[in-house]
Write a structure and sequence with these properties.
The structure is a single chain. The protein has two domains: 158 residues, D-Maltodextrin-Binding Protein, domain 2 (3-Layer(aba) Sandwich); 97 residues, 3-Layer(aba) Sandwich (D-Maltodextrin-Binding Protein, domain 2), CATH 3.40.190. The protein has twelve helices and eight strands.
Length: 263
């Protein structure tokens, strides 16, 4: 889907039953499509590294420059970029975000020097560093960006109430896979899966494990927490997002998770 807005469009149109998206993108669509609900937390914190051209040594140097993202608004990497640059004293009119496409497209744009920086998760962050592009910051360095649900699972109520056993099985499987990933006895197999799925060597795969499992970016407790959602809203307010709710939990339905955990 490349970004959250595209995933939500597919969900609304019926091409997807569930989607993993950023809460801000979800809320904007939920205001128009109240049948969509946020069900479980998928990713905590903001696990994005800021990767720049070799001559750029700190985030503040990006003033007046062009940075690349998957979407102009609503993409997880876009939100991470805006928040990270805000933490470094840059407002939106201090730089320009361009839509640079998929992960591979953004890497190509860096190599062609059509953009000066991107934010990437692992293993792509390590791959870019191996290609000579330095990491100049990391969003999870900032307390305000750590205790948030950065991505959540969403679905239509009509789907998970209309096919209750299928929906419960999806969440039960998600919880079981999460528990398996965090079992230290499975580390070697998890790393092997990362290497095969992402087509990377040992170092990027191990860095992916360290970032996402070691720092508990993959959400262990699937329940959406109000404190994390309120911090997410506060962060959005800092970067000038409009029409933010005072009660982000009104978009959440935990009933499916409750049934899955009780099954």
């Amino acid at each position: 889907m490349t970004n959250s807005p595209n995933a939500l469009t597919a969900l609304v149109g019926g091409s997807l039953d569930v989607a993993v998206v950023t809460p801000d993108a979800a809320m904007a669509v939920q205001d128009k499509e109240p049948d969509i609900r946020q069900l479980i937390a998928v990713g905590n914190g903001t696990a994005y590294a800021l990767i720049a051209q070799p001559e750029i040594v700190k985030a503040a140097n990006l003033r007046g420059m062009i940075v690349g993202a998957s979407a102009l608004r609503g993409g997880a990497d876009t939100t991470a970029m805006r928040l990270l640059l805000f933490e470094n004293g840059l407002k939106e009119d201090d730089y320009t975000i361009v839509q640079a496409g998929t992960v591979s497209d953004r890497t190509a744009a860096m190599q062609a020097r059509t953009i000066q920086a991107v934010v990437q998760q692992e293993p792509q962050a390590t791959l870019l560093q191996q290609a000579g592009f330095p990491q100049i910051d990391n969003a999870n360095n900032y307390p305000s960006l750590k205790k948030v649900h950065f991505v959540v699972l969403v679905a239509k109520r009509s789907w998970y109430k209309g096919t209750p056993q299928v929906a419960v099985n999806v969440v039960r499987a998600w919880a079981a896979i999460t528990a398996w990933i965090y079992d230290a006895a499975n580390k070697d197999e998890v790393v092997a899966v990362i290497k095969k799925a992402m087509n990377v060597s040992d170092a990027p795969a191990l860095n992916t494990y360290a970032a996402h499992i070691g720092q508990q970016v993959v959400t262990r407790d699937l329940r959406i927490q109000e404190a994390y959602m309120q911090q997410f809203i506060a962060n959005q307010r800092n970067i000038g997002t409009d029409n933010l709710p005072s009660d982000p939990m009104k978009y959440v339905d935990s009933s499916l998770l409750d049934r899955a955990l009780a099954a």
